[in-house]
Structure formats: structure tokens, C-alpha cells
């Protein structure tokens, strides 16, 4: 039997933890793939983008993603 997991970001404690994990995974992957084009696609993540910390993170990502 195949189980599907749905990640809900409505939990006040888990939301920041999950957000940090996602951000770290992306940065680590970006650093490992030198010389390859990279893309981060944020689709249907309005709740995450609306948070002040996530908006600051997206601004922070602009320079390293351009360089990498």
C-alpha cells in the first residue's frame, strides 16, 4: 500500500521548523551543483511567502543564486 503524506503549514510550531529545513535543503543543493543552472519554484506557497522571515530569505537568496 502506498501512503501519501500531506504537509500542513497551519501548525504554529511546525511551520518555522519546516520552513528552515526547506531553506537549508535548497541552499545545500545549490552549493553542491556548481556550474549547473538552478531554479527555485515557489508555487502555491502564499502563506509561506507572506511571512516576513520568508520574504527576507528570498531577498537573501537572490545574490547567491546568481553567483552559483
From TrEMBL:
Lineage top rank: taxon: Bacteria
Question: Does Glycosyltransferase count among this protein's keywords?
Answer: no
Specify the taxonomic lineage: Bacteria, Pseudomonadati, Bacteroidota, Flavobacteriia, Flavobacteriales
PANTHER family, sorted: CONJUGATIVE TRANSFER: ASSEMBLY (PTHR38467:SF1), PTHR38467
Q: Where in this chain does the record put each TraG P-loop domain?
A: 10-65
Q: Which UniProt keywords apply?
A: Membrane, Transmembrane, Transmembrane helix
The species this protein belongs to is Myroides marinus
**Segments passing through the bilayer:** 13-30
> Could you tell me what this protein is called?
TraG P-loop domain-containing protein
